[in-house]
Amino acid sequence: MKLKSWLNLSYILLALLVVSVSIVGFYFLEKITLASDRILKDNYESLTYLDNMIGAAEKMDKYVVSGYYINKNLSTDSSGLAIYEKIFRDNLNKEENNITEAGEKELVEKLRSEFDDYINLIQNFTTESPAEYYPDLISPKYYSINNLCRDILDLNKNALVRKNNEAITISKELEMYMLIITLLAVVTALLILFKIPGIVIKPIIELTQNVIEISEKNYSRKLDLKMDNELGNLADKINLMSGKLEEYERSNIEKFIAEKKRAEAIVKSMRDGIIVIDESNRVVLINSVSEELFGVTEDNITGKDINEISKYNKLMENFSKELSENNEVTADSDIKKNYFRIFYKNKEEFFLKEVIKVYDEKRTSVLGAVLILKNVTGFKELDEIKSGFIATVSHELRTPLTAMSMSFHLLQDKRIGELNEEQSKLIDTMKQEVKRLLKIVSELLNLSHIESGNQQMKYRTVPVEDIFDAAVTPMLMQIENKKIDFTVNVEKDIPLIKADVNKIAWVLINLLSNAVRYTPEGGSIKLSAVKKNNEVLISVRDSGKGIEPNNLNKIFEKFVQIDEKNIESSKSGVGLGLAISKEFVNIHGGKIWAESEVRKGTVFYFTLPFNV
Question: What are the structural domains of the chain?
Answer without folding.
Answer: 3-191 (1.20.1330), 270-375 (3.30.450.20), 383-451 (1.10.287), 457-609 (3.30.565.10)
